[in-house]
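Contributing new records

If you add data, match the layout below exactly. Sequence lines come first and carry their own label; structure lines follow with theirs. Keep one chain per record. Anything else will be rejected by the validation script.
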Amino acid sequence: MTQSIGPDAAPQNISVVNKTSASILIMWGEVPKSKRQGRIQSYKVDYTSTTNNDKKSKTVQAPTQHLEIDGLQHNTSYTITVMASTSKGYGPASEPIHVTTDKDQTLS
């Protein structure tokens, strides 16, 4: 049996909002108190383009529970997960959330 070294659960209530055709805002709730295994220090957001499987990550220091990601490709699907970490390491990733950026709104 492997023991988790970080939190025993992922952040809850992940949501994503399209800000522009190249940026999204990701928000999440806390890891349940009984599952934290210490003080949450940071969150890691992984986002992967389903078009070219390009995986990137950004880290946010707690207590911040949101992240705006820009420089994304227009009209592209992304899979997003969020993990929390304590001084002992990362816990499990959240259930994947799927979002598609807007089409580029160029005027012709």
